[in-house]
Amino acid sequence: MTENQDTIESLLLAVKENELSITEAKDKLSHYDELGFAKIDLHRTKRQGFPEVIFGEGKTVTQLDEIVHTLIKHNEVILITRIDQIKADNIIAKYPQLEYHETARIVCTPVNTINKTEHFAAIICAGTSDLPVAEEAAITAEVMGISVQRFYDVGVSGIHRLFAHIEAIRQSKVSVVIAGMEGALSSVVAGLVDHPVFSIPTSVGYGANLDGVTTLLSMVNSCAPGSSVLNIDNGFGGGYNAAMIINMIENA
Questions:
Q1: Distance between CA atoms of 192 and 149, rounded to whole angstroms?
Q2: In Å, how far from its chain's centre is CA 168?
Q3: Residues 6 or more apart from 77 whose CB is under 8 A from it?
Q4: What share of the chain is helix, strand, coil (3-state, %, to 5)?
């Protein structure tokens, strides 16, 4: 019997024993919650192992409030990305059980309340200007229950800083490399480790950087095998992918 079948049978039994109303059972079986402006995916955890993540940019405080109100009834973990201080203050005021990470621009369930994995992901950042993307990756992975070690400001212009940490980085099971400018750091790391590397180009750089397009093309053309490239400034995607790798290893 599958997990879904077991859940349905338990609900039917609860209705039969008058432990659950028909309306409550229908709510639990619903695949999504209709809010008019959004359809909240209630079965994301069953399909992908983690609840729906809220992309905060472009949403109003009222919309965010209604989405959080729905998700928090069904999930123990909440993650909102790309949210500014003003919106975050409004959300935290109503849901004080959440916390705000200003650099990452994330509102989430407190990271220190979430059990972490034995294996860790290395979050490697070229420069201080890339920190918002790096922290988005790191906090995303931590909210997903992944142990993280941060290696920041180790770009190729002072490559000895990377080498000082390379043995620790090699102990990780996946690396997320964040860099702007020409993005050379991801190729260097990929050539030094025996695990998957997720490379994230940032929009940090001077004019010819073209808001990260130059970095993106540089990373895509890397000659170092084992590196997969995400979209510009997509720290969330890097953290999420790293979490999937670690979870696969620990659940094997």
A1: 17
A2: 22
A3: 50, 51, 108, 109, 114, 143, 144
A4: 45, 15, 35
Task: For the full predicted model, state whether its pTM sits above 0.70.
Answer: yes
| Interstrand relation of 54-55 and 79-81 (parallel, antiparallel or unpaired) | parallel
Q: Do the Cβ atoms of 180 and 126 come closer than 8 Å?
A: yes
For residue 44, give both structure tokens: 């994301």
> Can you list the positions of beta strands (E) in 42-83?
54-55, 79-81
Both tokens of residue 30?
């619903």
pLDDT digits (tens, 9 = 90+) for 116-164: 999 999 999 999 999 999 999 999 999 999 999 999 999 999 999 999 9
At 102, the amino acid letter reads E
Tokens of 7: 């859940």
CA angle 210, 211, 212 (to 5 degrees): 90
Alpha-carbon gap, residue 222 to 67, rounded angstroms: 40
Q: How far is CA 89 from the centre of its chain?
A: 21
- Residues 110 and 104: their CA atoms lie apart, in Å, by 14
